[in-house]
Amino acid sequence: MRRRRWPVVVMVLGVLALLTWYVGYTQHVVTQLRVAAASQGRMYSRIYLALNDTSVAGQDPTTVLLELAGQVRESGLPLVLTDAHGGVSGAANLPFDEPLDGPRTKAYVQQLDRVNAPIIELGVGGVHYGDSPIITGLRVIPVLQAIAIGLLLALALYALVERGRAEREKVWAGMAREAAHQLGTPLSAMAGWIELLRDEIETPTAKRAVLAMEQDIQRLDRVSHRFERIGRPPRRDGVECTALVDRLAAYFAARAPTLARRVLITSEHPTAPLVAVGDGVLLEWVLEVLIKNAIDALAGRDGLVVVSAHPLPEGGVNIRVADDGPGVPRQLRKRIFDAGFSTKDRGWGIGLALARRIVEENHGGKLTLAETSRGAAFDVILPG
Question: Which residues contact residue 151 at a Cβ distance below 8 angstroms, ignoring those fewer than 6 apart?
Answer without folding.
Answer: 14
